[in-house]
Every structure is written in structure tokens, then in C-alpha cells.
């Protein structure tokens, strides 16, 4: 896992937010930012891969909530997060 995986995951999550209905975008963009900011000071002992898998799983859930095919839409996020399914 590369050192900037968290930043790459955040970028992909924001790209996915743009696929949501316009009225839902501000909420999920703010939610994503708050969550990534909360974890920006991870130590080497923290489990970054687990947090990234959680980000993928949550993003997939939100996409499916709005009837967006998560498998297609979140492919790049899945690669960044190293997730094995949703």
C-alpha cells in the first residue's frame, strides 16, 4: 500500500459523490471530508488498509442507496482501497 493511499481514496470518494443526486452531494462531501480529516494523523501502528476497506464498503452502500451500480462506479476506489468485494 503506497503512502498516499488515503489521499487517493479521498479523491476517489469525492468523484463518487459527484454521481449522487444534487441535493445529497453537499452532505456526503462534508461527511467524507470530516471522516478523512479525523484519520489524517495515523501512526504506523494504525490499520490503514482496514480504514480504506471501510471507506470502500461505506461508499458502495451509499451508491447502492441511490441505485447507482457500485461495482461499476467504484472500481477505481476498490483498487486504491484494496477491497475484496463490497
UniProtKB/TrEMBL annotation:
<protein>
    <recommendedName>
        <fullName>Complex 1 LYR protein domain-containing protein</fullName>
    </recommendedName>
</protein>
<feature type="domain" description="Complex 1 LYR protein">
    <location>
        <begin position="7"/>
        <end position="56"/>
    </location>
</feature>
<comment type="similarity">
    <text>Belongs to the complex I LYR family. LYRM9 subfamily.</text>
</comment>
<dbReference type="InterPro" id="IPR045291">
    <property type="entry name" value="Complex1_LYR_LYRM9"/>
</dbReference>
<dbReference type="InterPro" id="IPR008011">
    <property type="entry name" value="Complex1_LYR_dom"/>
</dbReference>
<dbReference type="Pfam" id="PF05347">
    <property type="entry name" value="Complex1_LYR"/>
</dbReference>
Amino acid at each position: 500500500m503506497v503512502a498516499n493511499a488515503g489521499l487517493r481514496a479521498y479523491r476517489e470518494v469525492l468523484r463518487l459523490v459527484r454521481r449522487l443526486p444534487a441535493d445529497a452531494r453537499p452532505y456526503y462531501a462534508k461527511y467524507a471530508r470530516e471522516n478523512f480529516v479525523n484519520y489524517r494523523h495515523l501512526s504506523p501502528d494504525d490499520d490503514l488498509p482496514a480504514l480504506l476497506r471501510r471507506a470502500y464498503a461505506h461508499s458502495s452502500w451509499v451508491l447502492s442507496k441511490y441505485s447507482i451500480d457500485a461495482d461499476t462506479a467504484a472500481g477505481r476506489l476498490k483498487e486504491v482501497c484494496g477491497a475484496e468485494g463490497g
